[in-house]
Amino acid sequence: MDHSPEITNCEVLAPAGSFESLAAALRSGADAVYFGVGELNMRSRSTANFRMADLPKVVRLCRRCGARAYLTLNIVVYDAELPLIRQLCDAALAAGVDAVIAADWSVIEYAAAIGLGVHVSVQANVSNLAALRFYARYAELVVLARELPLARIAEIAAAIRRENITGPGGRRLRLEVFAHGALCVAVSGRCYMSLAAYQASANRGGCFQNCRRRYRVTDLDSGSELELAGEYVMSPKDLCTIRFVDRLLEAGVDVLKLEGRGRSADYVATVTGCYRQAVDLVAAGRFGPEAVTALENRLETVFNRGFWHGGYYLGEPLAQWSPGGGNQAAYLKTQVGAVIRYFNRLGVAELELSAAALHCGDRLLVTGPTTGAMEFVVSEIRQDDIRRDDAPKGTVCSVPVPSKVRPHDRVYRLSRRRFGEEGGES
Length: 426
Description:
The protein is an alpha/beta fold. Helix content is about 25%, strand content about 25%. β16 and β17 form a beta hairpin.
């Protein structure tokens, strides 16, 4: 099957909350990454942010892999923060950042005025052509509201091409949709539950995620309580669009955004790699049920709250609640130790087993700021140049690795989850 250039050129946009995750995204085939600096973004409560001084390095690493770099400035902004907003935009422009992602007009207007690219955030809840025509005066890309059905997205994309709606640079306005990861129960993430309960606004990046908890309904007259079937009725399952990536691209979507700036490097590597492969298979005309099953199986190995496979895109109701309060991944991570050194000629890593023993046949994950995330099965263990079946905790051993690792990289064992067991990531 022949596909249009738009499908072939669809951008896989990956999250980066650390240099580990950035390396994982780039090594897994991301066309672009998005990241935050400091506190003026929707992940201000987490540690998943860079410093302003990191901007040149982030851009340099992206360029080395032929990828674009987008800075998230997607919060509601207060007057006292305007000088810092301008400082961040100036620094992003100087560093070569391709665009800022924003919904607040203070950011959009200033970035456009200095010639910094603008992407309109999902928080703007863009759902119609009138809004797109308006934002096209300032932005080269608009993230559509998460609540739109696929048919409506296709109508919007067709109208953009038919009317030749262009951004400030004269290029056709691009469309981005959310493709994978955590969903907010509120409209396009504009939630006020955390603000009401804790004076910590989700729209300022301070969400406490109280929707992710289990609640009881209390009869105020009698005092009797009803637990809601044990379900987390405000905590949706994670969105997973891998089954219909082809339909998203054929509808005219230009960018598939993957959620997860607060997630680990192995999550970013797995999710980015799966959607990279899916887009490439669609472009090659080889996307089908067998590939979908394999990709879904891979996605289930990393953090998830269970998957909602259709989402609003396919008109499914939001009664897709998470089965538990935490990680439902098929694999759990247990730290084993760290890398001491790497022997390039032998393709071998020396490991310090500070936290757990190691056995032949173990599946390991190695993560680091340059390494990103690398998985492999231990095929051989050596201590004092003697081949062994296992190595005890508190010892040093050597194992073959598929590619270069670095000193201080962390080493984890991946094991199959037992029924009812939850992981550590939240």
